[in-house]
Input
Amino acid sequence: MKFEAEWMRGGTSKCWVFEAGHLQEGGASLDVLLPRLYGSPDSRQIDGVGGATSTTSKAVILHRPAGDGVDIEFTFAQVGIEEATVDWGSNCGNCSAVVGLYAIEKGWVVPEGDVTRVVTRNTNTGQVIVQRVATPSGELPDVPSAHMPGVPFPGHLVGLGFQDPAGKTTGALLPTGAATDTITAGGTRWTVSMVDAGAPVVIVQASELGLDPSRYETWQTGIEQQLEVLEQIRRQAAVRMGLTPTIAGAARAIPKLAVVGPPTDRDPASDVNVMMLSMGKPHPALAITGSIALTLAARTPGTVLHAITGRHLGATLRLRTPAGVIETWTEDHDGSLLVGVDRTARTIATTIIHLPEVSGSAAAAALVGATL
Output
């Protein structure tokens, strides 16, 4: 079997981008097909196209809707690495940034003016994301020049505006109805905020983990020593937020967990220090869908994040991450609230992925018996 695909970087993630029709030609369930294409289960993903990390084992599947004011729909898949699984429970904001660029490069959307607006919809969450792709003089530049924290090389500038993002997964910005809740894990009571915007996120205070706000560079080591209790908190939050009926049934990808703390007086460039966990490990930058939740949490009185940012927050929120400071923004657009962040994106390769026939195994039976 052969599959057409684009290898693209969006923000601080890499993903393989497929058109839905091309995957359908394989005649297999995506829950079976994608892990095999990526080389899972295998911590190296040596016999597939996966990058062996959570930020490089991702897929975006594109659909072209008929009307409805949406230019392109997309489905995000987080492909397991050590397990032959696919998590469909959330979107990836970084990978979302490739969608508008792909549409322009393929001629699905014609560039207009210095900024081309591409209306996209994520099918995992139903979230509409208004993408603003830089097209100086009405075209994509041959050599992109936009830079962003966490990426050493430039790409095309893509602004992502999440339209009215509150409650897209659970139905409410505060799924439990409270700005803060108490969770008991590891024999300790933790004060957390559970927020749903962009993606469901549980927010934990750095001080309760014993992390020093003035030594952000030490946070990763401190967090890695407490991953087990943080996972307990995250799984209990999944139940509280209505994402799963049982702790054991919590998905790996959602809710996301963010550790937050105040910046030091020596750091006027940021409003809050953040370290987010992705698939059970510290994220090298920041999950962009998670940054949308943090942005609204910072503006919601009573949350642990609002206690840090206070009443003096302006139109932007500056989040210090391991990759540098990421700035989010809010604005009104045609009567809707857009909560957004600027990313860069570029196409790395256009390719054909080869998948040999599999025989004599349970996987082969699944490939034959399943449908997309």
Q: What stands out?
A: The radius of gyration is 20 Å. The chain is about 20% helix and 35% strand.
